[in-house]
């Protein structure tokens, strides 16, 4: 087996060595477990039910096709129905379940792999490509099965054992898929597409496992089960490494782990500069379970809780009680430290389901975040009530994403008052003076930051979107990833305007985008006047190390020099020099 390497964009550092596990999106969750003899009958029934549901779904889709729908669409559904009724998919998996005493998902996936292999051997290209139809039909069945879990015991242990040495190789992974990895234990993941600050990449960083996106053809070039090395820092994947390379990387992996270990020594040190200025280092979280990592990191608060992940991979929206319990859990676990909960930021690359596709041409410019909430006031009301109720149990602040006009802010405030009123009427306790902050992540809001600061208690700069919207670069599109640069002078100017607006009105300003967790930018951000940075827990210690070795007076003058420049080519080397001091 020859060795080769593939280059992409490293989005989460570290080194992983393991075996490739190729997945297509909906097959991500398929795991293998054995059933006790007495459950085999149930499992076969579960499989038959799932096939029946998919059949009915397909027939319903066919029935609802309008007369004007293209003929291929009907033919396409018919093909899928035919594939599904073929014995090889509707009967053979039952034999597999019976013989191997395995779960239904695994059985149909095995059978699918077999069929796909046979298709691969077909010379006729058209026929060969029909394998995609088989995969799509199987995906449908698996999705239904996953929505109706079997009664088999101890699944999680098996999942973990299987995944501990596994590197996930996918064409693409949606944020909704990636959030599920939090419960699993993959050693790394790599994808063909994706941008550096896409939400999938952000989740990869929060999982603290190496990952690389934009590898273009990793899924075609790598075979299932092949040994691969993922170097997340360099963005390189080495397939079938030679003995020497493997030994070299094992050494590097150990070094990396030692460095991480060393950093832990400053975990309980206060984040104070050499001349005595305290910098608040807060954490970003996606789900309540992340609080453990926050505590282990030594963060002194939560600067961004992205609540939309609570809404993903669900058939229905979480109700007020479910949301309240999640927010309360975080508030209580943080024991009075600040917990900044952001209202729903669905839309753009964050859809509720991995396969729901936004119908608008430019979803990042569409009905996203606060715009979506204001157009669905009932959803907003439910979430605001849940947040307010949780505020009784800790130090909660509310953060509004993607504000671009004062009208949006004022409407939000009215809805917040309405939520408060409804709670008062029911005599439900909440914090009357709960702080309300706004994200500055649209250039319009940054330019007008003073007006927002006047009407808010605090500001938080979302640099991921601020860069995307200022530079007109889709953060999920790897084709323009090389243009995505936090040091672009226009981006720095917008950040500076926001910091000054906060200072003028005595309102705190934080950064909670990925810039805050990049230790190479810490000195610049502090020099520009920021005193609060919120990032993934895994970045806290490396950023703290920078803080501990900094002198504010020096950083201020350095930052002034950077802000005086309007040429990116001059800014980059100057900022790089800061870190040598
Ligand atoms: C940002 O845009 O910088 C931000 C923190 O929000 P998100 O990444 O969730 O869009
Ligand atoms: Mg954002």
Biggest sheet details? 8 strands, mixed
Structural class: alpha/beta
Uncertain regions spanning at least 5 consecutive residues? 151-163
Beta-strand residue percentage: 5-15%
* Mean pLDDT across residues: 89
Structure overview:
With 581 residues, the protein is an alpha/beta fold. Strands 1-8-7-3-4-5-6-2 form an eight-stranded mixed β-sheet. An eight-stranded parallel β-sheet has the order 15-14-13-12-11-10-9-16. It is built from 25 helices and 16 strands. The chain folds into three domains: 1-28 and 154-264, Glucose Oxidase, domain 1, CATH 3.50.30; 36-151, Enzyme I, Chain A, domain 2 (Orthogonal Bundle); 267-578, Alpha-Beta Barrel (TIM Barrel). The chain is globular and about 75 Å long. Phosphoenolpyruvate (PEP) binds at residues 202, 304, 306, 345, 441, 462-465, 512-513.
What would the keywords be for this entry?
25 helices; globular; binds phosphoenolpyruvate; binds magnesium ion; TIM Barrel; 8-stranded parallel β-sheet; Enzyme I, Chain A, domain 2; 581 residues; Glucose Oxidase, domain 1; alpha/beta; 3 domains; 8-stranded mixed β-sheet
